[in-house]
Design brief:
2 copies of one chain form a homodimer. By secondary structure, chain A is of the alpha/beta class. Chain A is built from 10 helices and 14 strands. In chain A, helix 1 crosses helix 10 and helix 3 runs parallel beside helix 5. At the A-B interface, helix 6, strand 13 and helix 10 of A face helix 6, strand 13 and helix 10 of B.
């Protein structure tokens, strides 16, 4: 067996902690450190909620740590985490990031994407942004499903999440329990949906004339109680977000994301209009809290083996599970 | 736009002809020649059943043709087409092949696979075997679906094809209308199922203790009439083939292929036992007659861009559709 990849976990929020736990389970990986100013000085075992110490003190910053790669889980916006990403590249570390805009940084931040690419090449490391959404169900999986198609005319991708089965932070984030007025002010919608759309369009070689995105509240048809909160009938149960890509006046790409408490028939669904047409359903949907850490960790050996530079899910070899 | 890839279609059976037709539709590809001793001297347009000539005479062999790549559709067994594949590599041509054993040539023919790999490297070209099955539904798609899994305990992959909706050759091949005695003599089963199994196991890093494969006739519960033949009640309607891979005495990989006339609820179905468990259904299934040419043609630019040598679906970048 080849030597384990030495990994630093950067960011210890809910996803970062779950990612660190998964790294500790894999004998192909070795957790070499953890970075998060919020927990600096504490033992990682304690931060992960374990009884035993890991003798791994959480650092406030990267400097001084030695490793091969970073799993980066700190923020959704590429420009806001850009300084962290350049520090990682300059330290000669590969980086798999859950940063949503990192799925396709060139979409919103072409100049920054180019700079990160150059830095990665100069330091012989790779970068990729991934996760379950964006990163898998509404982009990578949809793209793979077009491989057996002679012709693709249009794609409709739908993800329905019953937020009531997810962690409290997600229930709050989608606006569950808010008034419509509060929703308008406080819920910006899921970051990364248009990046997913752009990645699919790019893979299919489609130049889009126009991309639209709408974020609207879903109102509860009846009172819904979750473990964490109650949504009264008529209050906001969550969010319905739709991104559309147009070619020649026609919506050829529709990404429809529904995340609300009490959502019936949760699922991931991909419909391809083309030759052949295909209709694919992931029954119950792909659970993000488990699947995002899995995507990050499973992509790590793939990225390490790739050519240096800024990658996307489309430029790396086939993602898949591992021991 | 980059220059079109110049392609030779090698083999003009049903899949080869469908592949040539698809090449002719893509402006990123240019059909530079066709090879098939059976049609040598005839115009390709005529062989494809068109009214107009293509001014492209079919050749008996590769020698003398100039191109970048070959789409190879002549046989299922890697050793039997090996001389064709080495000729293609020696001519400095990339090759995407529908050869079923070519999905993972090292599984049954490790020495030949190594020789082809060395030839490919020496001549700076790539080789990959693909198609819809093997090549997509029972291997590549299943592997991709493990990417969001923290842990995979077992995989069950099922493909149910209503052979009654497929071309006559396939209906005959699966034994439709035969007596059970005739089936035993004449139906060897689908080639490539164990290669699919081995590719998935390899991707997941699983060393299998044992692989089994069973081929059994499906008997018609009632009389079934297709466009081409009639299967009386009790006669053979088609084939049921199951390959299993074991670890520690437990079947961790089950590939269940059912191809018979009158099969109800045709579908491709992938069940992952693990964390998270996933259950994915391609409703109606992925139609092979359309999808296999699509896989071959869509893989071509991916292979051309890859490092020279013998590839598998696991060593190439994400497959997807294209214009």
């Amino acid at each position: 067996m080849s030597k384990p990849i030495r990994v630093i976990q950067f960011g210890l929020g809910a996803i970062g902690r779950a990612t660190a736990r998964l790294v500790l389970k894999r004998n192909t990986l070795q957790l070499a450190g953890a970075v998060d100013p919020q927990f600096a000085g504490r033992d990682l075992g304690e931060v992960l909620g374990w009884r035993r110490k890991l003798n791994l003190p959480v650092r406030a910053e990267l400097a001084g740590l030695s490793a091969d790669a970073v799993l980066h889980c700190t923020g959704s916006h590429f420009d806001k985490v850009f300084d962290q990403l350049t520090a990682i590249a300059r330290a000669g570390l590969h980086c798999v990031s859950s940063c949503e805009e990192g799925l396709l940084p060139s979409y919103r931040h072409p100049a920054l994407a180019k700079r990160l690419h150059q830095l990665c090449v100069a330091h012989h490391v790779g970068f990729v942004g991934t996760g379950v959404n964006p990163g898998f169900v509404m982009d990578t999986l949809a793209l793979v499903l077009t491989a057996p198609c002679q012709r693709v005319d249009a794609l409709r991708i739908r993800r329905v999440v019953n937020a009531g089965t997810r962690r409290e932070a997600l229930q709050r984030k989608v606006g569950a329990g808010m008034s419509p007025a509060e929703f308008r002010v406080r819920v910006g919608g899921h970051v990364g949906l248009t990046e997913s759309l752009a990645l699919v369009a790019d893979g299919l070689g489609w130049k889009l004339d126009r991309v639209t995105e709408q974020v609207a509240p879903v109102r509860a048809a009846r009172t819904v109680r979750t473990r964490y909160l109650t949504v009264n009938r008529g209050a906001v149960a969550g969010v319905h977000q739709v991104a559309r890509g147009y070619r020649g006046g026609r919506a050829v790409l529709t990404l429809d994301l529904q995340m609300y408490v009490g959502a019936p028939a949760p699922r991931d669904e991909i419909e391809i209009r083309g030759d052949p047409p295909l209709h694919v359903v992931v029954a119950g949907g792909t659970p993000g809290d488990v699947a995002t850490p899995a995507m990050l960790v499973n992509l790590l050996p793939v990225l390490v083996a790739a050519a240096p530079g800024l990658h996307t899910m489309k430029t790396l070899t086939l993602p898949h599970g591992a021991r």
